[in-house]
Write the structure tokens for this entry.
Amino acid sequence: MYHEFFGLKEPAFSIAVNPRYLFMSDQHREALAHLLYGIQNGGFVMLTGEVGTGKTTIIRCLLEQLPSNTDIAIILNPMGSAPELLSTICDELGVVYIADELTVKNLTDALNQFLLDNHRKGRKTVLLIDEAQLLKVPVLEQIRLLTNLETTTEKLLQIMLVGQPELKKLLARPALRQLSQRITARFHLEALSLAETKAYITHRLKIAGLPEHVRPFSDSMIKKIHRFSGGIPRLINVLCERLLLGAYAQNLHHIDKSIFAAAIKEVAGTNTQQEEKLAASRTSWHALFVVVVVAVMLTVWFWVPDEASTSVAPVAVQSSSAPASVSASSSSSAVVVHSLSEIRTLAKPLVPEVSTLATRDLAAAQLGLLSYLGLTARNNNSPCLLAQGANYVCEKVRIHSWDELKEINRPGLITLATPDKKWVYGLLIGLSENQVMLLVNGEYKTLPWNDIADLWNGDFLYMWSRPQDFDSDLRVGDKSDLVTWIAEQFAQLDQQPAPLTRQFFTDRLKKRVELFQSTHNIIPDGVINAQTLRRLNEALGIDKSLIELHEEQPVVAPLDMQGL
């Protein structure tokens, strides 16, 4: 299947729990430390998290780190009554009890005797209850009573409750306050961040044997995966599995947006959550618009003074068959109709005329971008083909959020739609949280982002200085002239007389790259990728960045090319 196509030794994203694929993020390690501390100090320990966030992974790690003198009872289905749960605990621990007398007292006495005997033998006893949010209140209270048996120094039974977020709400009930007060360590497991998602995907591919030169998921694709999955490892596995299978079906080694669109339809079975939220948002705004218009109409109806009727010519709203003379009431009606016409005019969204912001000539737009960057095209019909020897390249991406534009941080062309459904191209040179700046015929225009958001299809074309020899990521052990060049750039950045290395990508260079990445909001993996190179260019002043706008920026002002 697909794993052979990508050079993998086995499927990388199986949802089955495989210890070889164990990925421990910082929060997973912190959760594990909390649980270990709680068990060592007795009482209750609680771990919560959404479905698929890795609770089972942490529990497996915890069980592996328990001392060899530990007996553990694991309850996977806690929905039964108190006698049923107690008998299951006894069965897990090998406690002998009379099967015909399944009363709470008989089972508790047998269990208590076992705990005392275990303590005399120098052994510890742990009870782990998974899906604990399903426990009933009387059963939880019975579990609490099990912890009453203790010596002067320690509890004889340590209890771990693992469940979904509903477990926290359950233990917040007044009836369970005594149990809640006995929880010595609790941790809520969050979904993976974007950086953790990238590390997670990379980790699983590496364990599955992905060759060094194969990179099916780009950084932008990983952002899409993270956005769709919400950082839930199980959803990441399911989606990545479908993406690789889709690429294999199309004989492609790189996941593109069409494969992603098909995969999320298969995984979700419907529109994406983002699409549903967008549709709901649009519906809400439409409803709000109707309410506002009706409110304004009613305000005009009751607010217009009677004397205003004499200042409006009634013939403006009369048909040709209407009499020349009109009553005061009809004159008042004329005022209302006239005012509603003004309301319709004022209610139209103040969207700027697209033709004043952009050009339909793509080549001309690209030439404008090159001119702004101080570059010269070799061919005016194909401006992206720069003069020979120039390192600058054109990159076209599909943007889905403001944050992606901020991450690229380069001037570029945005594709806008005209009222007659044609594409035009505007030169974006600056932005803030709420505004954008476009360069139009030698002037820059600053306007609210919302004014053009609906006109933009998400395409963004920008340029950056990409080293000629850079065709794939660089890692420790690689050897090339490009490694020397990168080391020299860091030496220049650090104002050092000599680079850390020449030709060979050493561990020292990797540590310097990791430090640079961590201070520039990049996953600190020590790998030289396109994102790291772009950030390095910015730090050295090689590439021109977007202008950082202030909210009080003037709407229109003459452009000082030298000042930019």
Observations:
- Confidence is low (pLDDT under 50) at residues 270-276, 300-351, 553-564.
- The first strand starts at residue 44 and ends at 49.
- The radius of gyration is 33 Å.
- The chain is about 45% helix and 15% strand.
